Amino acid sequence: MRGLLEGKRLVVTGVVTRDSIAYHVAARALDQGAELVLTSFGRVKRMTVRAAARLPQEVDVLELDVGSPEDFAALTQTLRERWGRVDGALHAIAYAPEDALGGEFMRTPPESAATAFATSAYSYQALAASLAPLMDQGGAFVGMDFDGSRAWPVYDWMGVSKAALEAVNRYVARDLGPQRIRANLVSAGPLGTVAARGIPGFEGLAQAWRDQAPLGWDTADATPVADTVCFLLSDLARAITGQIVHVDGGFSAMGAAPAPVAEPTRQEALAGV
Q1: pLDDT by residue (tens digit) across 196-254?
Q2: CA torsion through residues 123, 127, 130, 136, sign
Q3: Which of 15, 56, 190, 228 has the most C-beta neighbours closer than 10 Å?
Q4: What residues pair up with 139 in beta bridges, in sequence order?
Q5: How far is CA 256 from CA 80, 144, 247, 249, in A?
Q6: Long-range contact list for 102-107, CB < 8 A, 24+ apart?
Q7: pTM for the full model?
Q8: Which residues are CB-contacts of 98 (< 8 A; sequence separation ≥ 6)?
Q9: What is the mean pLDDT of residues 56-65?
């Protein structure tokens, strides 16, 4: 459907390289008629700018460190001056320190667990709170998830943070619904992004999807995920909020347990992060 997002003004976080899920969302949204800005910060911003240059249209990259309230305030002001309104946003931000991943769950210090939560879950609420005042005609938030209902091998405190993200999404949907602002998550199967490849045991997870997803699963193809995000940002999803949409080839609906994934040694885990 051409023009699905015609006239929509969207904020897309999480573009680092052309492998990023958020990059594919941005490309698809532009193809569907949206106007975009990307966000990034620090040293990563140069990588985001390089990736943005490969998009089919010129897209600006605005500064946003989700740990900085000042950056959120500046983002809101910049978008108010630029557009006057925002119609939707993609939250594709997640991070856990190396000692919060890789099979060291019981030894992770509290400050590392707190960092994983603040960056990966609380930031969704912070993004929604900063942009909701610009959605006076309604709007939509979409966050990137990875099934937080299970304890995955080596995913550790990132898995806990994704479970928290799922709860945050429900509360954002509750509080912003009266303003006709929707909040949903897309729980994607494993994709070969730079971030995912840094998770020890990723290939084992990917193989489980290939073996057990009834529709099959291609870890190199992010377009089904990007298409679903664009649908949720569109008016076609106007009555959907507080939900988790699984785009995983049907893996999450099957009763079979995931294929075993070998636990890495501490040395292997740190090398992979």
Answers
A1: 666 666 777 788 888 999 999 999 999 999 999 999 999 999 999 999 999 999 999 99
A2: negative
A3: 15
A4: 181
A5: 49, 24, 18, 14
A6: 102/154, 102/156, 102/200, 102/264, 102/266, 102/268, 102/269, 102/270, 102/272, 102/273, 103/153, 103/154, 103/156, 103/200, 103/263, 103/264, 103/266, 103/269, 104/156, 104/266, 104/269, 105/156, 105/157
A7: 0.91
A8: 269, 270, 273
A9: 97
User: Cα separation of 98 and 120, whole Å?
Assistant: 14
CB atoms within 10 A of CB 29: 26
CB count in 10 Å sphere of residue 171: 14
The answer to whether residues 243 and 185 touch, using CB atoms and an 8 Å cutoff, is yes
Instruction: Please count the other Cβ atoms lying within 10 Å of the Cβ belonging to residue 133.
Output: 13
Taking the CA of residue 235 as centre, how many other CA atoms within 13 Å lie in the half-sphere pointing to its CB?
11
**Residue of 209, 204, 199 lying closest to 262 (CA atoms):** 204
In the sheet with 60-63, reading across from the earlier edge strand, the strands are 60-63, 35-40, 9-12, 88-91, 139-145, 181-188, 244-247
Which amino acid, 7? Answer: G
Q: What are phi and psi of 67, to 5 degrees?
A: -90, 5
Please write the tens of the pLDDT for every residue from 77-109.
999 999 999 999 999 999 999 999 989 899 999
In order of 13, 94, 266, the CA distances from 146 in angstroms are 17, 11, 23
Pairing state between β 88-91 and 139-145: parallel
Calpha distance 17→51 (Å, rounded): 5
Are the C-beta atoms of residues 215 and 249 closer than 8 Å to each other? yes
- Give the integer Cα–Cα distance in Å for 163 and 169: 10
Task: List the catalytic residues.
Answer: 155, 162
Structural domains of the chain in order of their starting residue, each with its CATH number:
9-272 (3.40.50.720)
